Model the fold of this input.
Amino acid sequence: MNPIEQFKQERAEAMKLMSQDAELKQKSVDWMLHSDKYKYTYNFTWMGRPIIKYPQDIQIMQELIWDVKPDLIIETGIAHGGSIIFSSSMMELLGNGGKVIAVDIDIRKHNRDEIEKHPMMKNITMLEGSSIDEGIVQQIADYAKGFKKVMVVLDSNHTHDHVLRELEMYTPLVSMDSYILLPDTFVEFFPKGYVTDRPWDVGNNPYTAMEAFLKTTKKFVKDESITDKLLVTEALGGGYLKRIA
Ligand SMILES: C[S@@+](CC[C@H](N)C(=O)[O-])C[C@H]1O[C@@H](n2cnc3c(N)ncnc32)[C@H](O)[C@@H]1O
Done:
């Protein structure tokens, strides 16, 4: 066997064993829960802008963007802008002239000012409003018409009803063999009542929305090979959905 294939095969075998290790999986959930006490996901920046994600999920976004080679990334939930700056920088690296369009219900002035003067702003369009507002979704759908390969990241309001509506509205825009990313499915795996400052909880979060959505379609599947290898991920439980039909 050639050495490249051998490396891949050995890695796949180790990952398969790791995915069956219930103790390691539980330790990973425990670690996420413990580190969340210190708002661990707020610790990182991408090209200077705070990005509210585990470094593991940023790494996987890089792998997916390289594999899928989207020319448009749609994001809901901008916050400080780190994620859209990341996506825009990946478009620069791909060199395919790709763009990013994103929506947030409240783009704070200090964040907007920093994002607008960032060199990666050149690929970004920001909209202000609710991600499930029909006018906003129509603007995004119109913008998406000229693109060949579209990827979507849903990272706004994480209640069941909101994410389910986002899934209904944004999945038609996702290209074949591309992905829709659902951060914060991990809430389902934390103790009930753990989240106190937001309306989501066990039974009411992106994971429950994803499960309800998957019952209605055969076009998307969970790519659990991703969450199995990450272990530490906001998308715990399969929140990387691949379009297969
Ligand atoms: C977790 S933060 C986004 C983090 C960002 N994607 C990143 O990785 O750095 C969630 C954002 O969603 C926004 N948001 C909340 N409800 C929303 C809605 N209905 N529509 C659009 N954005 C919303 C909030 O204003 C907040 O900025």
